[in-house]
Design a protein that fits this description.
The protein is mostly helical. The chain contains 13 helices and no strands.
């Protein structure tokens, strides 16, 4: 019975990861569509406003004091700024580059996290993972295509966004004891505050349809977060995390269907290098964790 339940949970976890990444890709595509007409600050503010409308019943159920009375508030605030700036960089970059290119650059985040974890978390990284990091960054260089015709500023903004996103993941690790709801609530309020601060200087009145699409940004982002969090609760990370790369496939299909942009050869080659390196690092970390757990268990025999 336990084996059947575990297999069922794993299958459901995979489906939830696929669904979560689909929602995130839809969110990114909506951002690319809307940023052509509306400023990034407006996207951040309205997306966050709708996000808070969805979160509010959960906050009231858990208790406002419980959600907001967090420890290490300065660390939370730094994370909020990082997450908000990362989203702004992404939306700005996809206004100039194909969605698949920007998402491929963002997939280098696990490589950046590996490098930053040495500096900020004091973690030890072996030579195999360092080689994987270098191979992955070679893939980033291929995607950026510095020797050919490429849009320098948006490409660098996308890379900056990926670095900031990775830094945000480091701060999320530092706040691992905090619950999911406080983390999501703080980052949503951060987007509302920072986007709202710039809104008086950048407001463009949307039509009814565009306003609903702006709101859908917040709903799809929250749905993606919820599904991925539930996926990781049901299934081992080693089973479900590799499925996050399905977002590249969705991005390619959306580029073709909506903007008529075909994937370039450099994006394909760079994507293979980045994804392959990320998967190697992930599985290497999982193997080391299992080895450490086995060693700890043997010490208690």
């Amino acid at each position: 019975m336990t084996a059947i339940t575990t297999a069922t949970d794993s299958r459901l976890g995979i489906l939830l990861m696929l669904g979560g990444m689909t929602f995130f890709t839809l969110n990114d595509a909506l951002g690319k569509w809307l940023v052509a007409e509306y400023p990034v600050a407006m996207l951040l503010a309205v997306r966050s406003l709708f996000g808070m409308a969805v979160l509010l019943p959960m906050i009231l159920r858990e208790g406002v004091r419980t959600v907001f009375a967090v420890k290490r508030l300065p660390v939370h605030l730094v994370r909020v700024v990082l997450v908000t700036v990362d989203i702004a960089c992404f939306y700005w970059a996809v206004g100039y580059l194909p969605l698949a290119d920007v998402m491929t650059i963002y997939m280098s985040a696990p490589l950046i996290v590996t490098a930053l974890s040495v500096l900020f978390l004091g973690e030890t990284v072996g030579w195999r993972r360092w080689v994987a990091v270098l191979v992955g960054f070679a893939g980033v260089v291929v995607v950026l295509n510095p020797t050919g015709g490429f849009d320098l500023v948006p490409s660098l903004v996308a890379l900056l966004g990926a670095t900031i996103f990775a830094s945000g993941l480091i701060f999320t690790r530092l706040l691992r004891e905090a619950g999911t709801l406080p983390l999501v609530t703080y980052q949503t309020l951060g987007g509302l505050a920072l986007g709202g601060a710039a809104l008086p200087f950048s407001w463009t009145a949307p039509g009814v349809l565009d306003f609903l699409l702006l709101g859908l940004l917040g709903v799809t982002a929250l749905a993606g977060h919820a599904m991925i969090n539930r996926s990781l609760q049901l299934s081992p990370a080693a089973v479900v995390v590799p499925f996050q790369y399905v977002s590249i496939l969705w991005a390619v299909l959306l580029d073709l269907a909506v903007w008529g942009t075909e994937p370039s050869l450099r994006m394909g080659i760079g994507g293979v290098l980045i994804i392959g390196s990320g998967l190697f690092i992930f599985h290497r970390e999982q193997r080391l964790k299992r080895g450490a757990a086995a060693g700890a268990a043997s010490d208690h025999v």
